Amino acid sequence: MSHILIVHAHPEPQSLTSALKDLAVGFLQARGHEVQVSDLYAMGWKAIADREDFTDTVDPERLSYIAESRHAYASDTQTLDIAAEQRKLLWADAVLFSFPLWWFGMPAILKGWVDRVFAFGFAYGVGEHGGERWGDRYGEGVLAGRRAMLMVPIGGRARHYSDRGVNGSLEEILWPIHHGTLFYPGLAVMPPFPVYSSDRLDDAGWQQVATDLEQRLAGLFSDAPIAYRCQNGGHYDTDQRLKPGLGQGEGGTRIHLVQPGDPEERLA
């Protein structure tokens, strides 16, 4: 039995996004997994990162959110809502994020969850720096050993999000979330589960989506994650730039994917 956290961000319980979340809960529980859901709208989640996030401040005159986050995490003076979500993440073996793609990103309430929960000392500012090592991040960190996957309804058509599509490829659009938010603190990131033309889905389309999602959930712990290069695996130099000879034949963010024939990564 595995522990799975679903972080859900949609204001309408009858939405397609909510239906995907409900399907995931039922499917996973039926297979013996333990599931927790953080339904951010239902929780009334505070999305704004501000001074109210700290019960004891280092500098009452001028807010440095990073400094206060570091102090609060280290001194166990975070607010109860932040600490509770961090405990859920540490409890989980996998985290599913359920949200619609709004303006090429996540809804503000989910971004606010990340801003507040991914605290200094928890999701960043972790590990020693020296030589080619810039802390424990990008494949290492507090959340290493866990998997993550996005379930993302999208209003646009699939071809609009292809390599030559006017919106850009979905891989590039999700890069800041996949690589910058999830891989950074150590999560192994699974390919996303997008649902295109989500506002035009008929009954037959929903049945296919449900079947496809169940297949993806069945492979949550066995399918291969996205092959991002680990920061401290030996592929980056002391300036955290990809070493010469790596990433040949690729462009953009794809150079940061491990390629056939690359040297084996070495992690401490």
Automatic annotation (TrEMBL):
Keyword Flavoprotein annotated: no
Family: Belongs to the NAD(P)H dehydrogenase (quinone) family.
Alphabetic keyword roster: Oxidoreductase
Domain Flavodoxin-like fold: 3-216
PANTHER family assigned to the protein according to its UniProt record, in alphabetical order: NAD P H OXIDOREDUCTASE-RELATED (PTHR10204), NAD(P)H DEHYDROGENASE [QUINONE] 1 ISOFORM 1 (PTHR10204:SF34)
Family annotation (InterPro entries): Flavodoxin_fold (IPR003680), Flavoprotein-like_sf (IPR029039), NAD(P)H_dehydrogenase_qn (IPR051545)
Stretch list, region Disordered: 242-268
Protein name per UniProt: NAD(P)H-dependent oxidoreductase
Pfam family membership, one: Flavodoxin_2
EC code: 1.-.-.-, 1.6.99.-
